[in-house]
């Protein structure tokens, strides 16, 4: 027995080191960590339990029968992140370039099934070259099994993809099915077809980072949620994100003790937000003032930044915040902003995270490009997401809320549980200037002094329909609050709604706009 145990120990160490020491050096020379080093950064020290470390492929032909390294290019297992179970798979680029074959895929299938059965998050550390060409259709079928499991687990357990190398084809589609995609600049890329194929087919010449690098996907395509300069900071934020999420859709997010008093007054809000609806300001400062200790974890911060989506804590409880950003495009809703916010609403609803919506929106972005791009159906995605959400929902109108954008930003009419407003709120079909030009155009045109008449009619419209208590008088706003009491009011409203239960109609699923 002792000899066998010594043999096991030596074999396990050999598998850990990889089949070729030079492969480890090449990985480090590229500024990349090995799969085991990445897992060690992700999970609590000494908590990782590997499964199937001795697995080998069964493929023959093309010299594969002579190359059968243990692990088959992927490390799978589970560990703890801040004492909570998390399942992990990590491509090992040192073995077949991390390419996916039959055995490789079956290992991932197993850990995905275990994550679903245990009701725990799944993190994929992706550094693979796509399907293993030598194994043909069995490799493609392996990806199909991964896609099916990602879809089946969507909204059941949190699924996070971390891109740590060049990932093409199926290796790019798999992360696109998960809840969050993390990328590292210069070392990770995602694309369906690489630069060589693009040039051959279209004549466009572009390098790997220009085609599918971290900044491209985090700021242009919206495929990536986050982009980082190095693997260490990337994996540290994966750990932080996991601390904000429940283990599964049957649990509430973890509650953390906060020394930030729930009744802290937010005096700074009196000066952060100008009363003039034409003046800009940074909504991030408002979110920071409300949140526990000013901390907020922003989702997709560099894509569609005319709307902000963030996870914060209020009195220790995780809360999702959707907010218009007046500092970018005046905070209008456009195609990308609608998509970003809709997906975030769906994520929070799936994982029992209450929603706070901060409204300061002039409307939807007008223009031919937006209309031809489908702003109607894309805006409807956000409307559908809110209408379908059953978690506690609180709306707060800071300043302007005009037209259809007011309705879409979680108004009472589409199901917000509580609607609040500051004394600076203006809720109307459109701004006073535009409304006066439409309603009183004949009077203005016929006046001896059109400019003076226009100013008079604007004032008249504002006093009749845009005063801060108009919506409150009609029950569409529950209360007009002092901005200094915003934090406490939100905390009390969410505490009251903590036990909310709402049933959706019996159906297989809805048919949301696409």
From TrEMBL:
Query: Mind telling me which Gene3D superfamilies this protein's record contains?
Result: 2-enoyl-CoA Hydratase, Chain A, domain 1 (3.90.226.10)
SUPFAM superfamilies, per database record: ClpP/crotonase
Q: Keyword check for Ribosomal protein, yes or no.
A: no
Name all CoA carboxyltransferase N-terminal domain ranges: 1-257
Point to the regions of Basic and acidic residues compositional bias: 1-15
Where would I find the CoA carboxyltransferase C-terminal domain in this sequence?
Answer: 261-496
Q: Which domain of life is it from?
A: Bacteria
Checking PROSITE patterns in the record gives: COA_CT_CTER, COA_CT_NTER
Q: Name one Pfam family in it.
A: Carboxyl_trans
Give the Gene Ontology MF terms in alphabetical order.
propionyl-CoA carboxylase activity; transferase activity
UniProt cross-references to InterPro entries, sorted A to Z? AccD/PCCB, AcCoA_carboxyl_beta, ClpP/crotonase-like_dom_sf, COA_CT_C, COA_CT_N
Q: Which UniProt keywords apply?
A: Transferase
Region of interest (Disordered), ranges: 1-32
Q: Which GO terms describe its cellular component?
A: acetyl-CoA carboxylase complex
- What's the name of the protein? Acetyl-CoA carboxylase carboxyltransferase subunit beta /acetyl-CoA carboxylase carboxyltransferase subunit alpha
């Amino acid at each position: 027995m002792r000899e066998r145990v010594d043999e096991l120990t030596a074999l396990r160490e050999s598998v850990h080191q990889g089949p070729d020491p030079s492969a480890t050096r090449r990985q480090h020379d590229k500024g990349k960590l090995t799969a085991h080093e990445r897992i060690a950064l992700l999970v609590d020290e000494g908590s990782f339990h590997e499964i199937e470390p001795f697995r080998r492929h069964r493929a023959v032909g093309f010299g594969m029968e002579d190359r059968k390294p243990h692990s088959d290019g992927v490390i799978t297992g589970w560990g703890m992140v801040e004492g909570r179970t998390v399942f992990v798979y990590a491509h090992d680029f040192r073995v077949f370039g991390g390419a996916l074959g039959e055995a490789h895929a079956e290992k991932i299938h197993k850990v995905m099934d275990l994550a679903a059965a245990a009701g725990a998050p799944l993190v994929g550390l992706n550094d693979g070259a796509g399907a293993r060409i030598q194994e043909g259709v069995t490799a493609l079928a392996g990806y199909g099994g991964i896609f099916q499991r990602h879809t089946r687990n969507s909204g059941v357990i949190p699924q996070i993809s971390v891109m740590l190398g060049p990932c093409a084809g199926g290796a790019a589609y798999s992360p696109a099915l998960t809840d969050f995609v993390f990328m590292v600049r210069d070392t990770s890329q995602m694309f369906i077809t690489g630069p060589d194929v693009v040039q051959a087919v279209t004549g466009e010449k572009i390098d790997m980072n220009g085609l599918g690098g971290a900044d491209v996907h985090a700021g242009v395509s919206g495929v990536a949620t986050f982009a980082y300069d190095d693997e260490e900071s990337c994996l540290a934020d994966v750990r932080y994100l996991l601390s904000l999420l429940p283990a599964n859709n049957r649990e509430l997010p973890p509650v953390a003790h906060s020394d930030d008093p729930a009744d802290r007054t937010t005096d700074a809000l009196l000066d952060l937000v100008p009363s003039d609806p034409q003046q800009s300001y940074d909504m991030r400062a408002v979110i920071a003032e409300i949140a526990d200790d000013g901390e907020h974890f922003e989702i997709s911060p560099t894509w569609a930044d005319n709307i902000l989506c963030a996870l914060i804590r209020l009195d220790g409880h995780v809360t999702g915040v959707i907010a218009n950003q007046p500092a970018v495009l005046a905070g209008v809703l456009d195609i990308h902003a609608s998509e970003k916010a809709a997906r975030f609403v769906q994520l929070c609803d799936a994982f029992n995270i209450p929603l706070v919506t901060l409204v300061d929106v002039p409307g939807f972005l007008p223009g031919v490009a937006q209309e031809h791009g489908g702003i109607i159906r894309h805006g409807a995605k956000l409307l559908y997401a809110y209408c379908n959400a059953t978690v506690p929902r609180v709306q707060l109108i800071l300043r302007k809320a005009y037209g259809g954008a007011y309705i879409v930003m979680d108004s009472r009419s589409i199901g917000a549980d509580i609607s609040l407003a500051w004394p600076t709120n203006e809720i109307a079909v459109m701004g006073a200037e535009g409304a006066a030009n439409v309603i009183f155009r004949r009077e203005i045109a016929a006046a001896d002094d059109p400019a003076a008449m226009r100013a008079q009619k604007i004032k008249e419209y504002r006093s009749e329909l845009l005063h801060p208590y108009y919506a409150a008088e009609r029950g569409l706003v529950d209360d007009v609050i002092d901005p200094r009491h915003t934090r406490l009011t939100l905390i009390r409203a969410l505490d009251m709604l903590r036990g909310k239960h709402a049933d959706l109609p019996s159906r297989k699923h809805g048919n949301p706009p696409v």
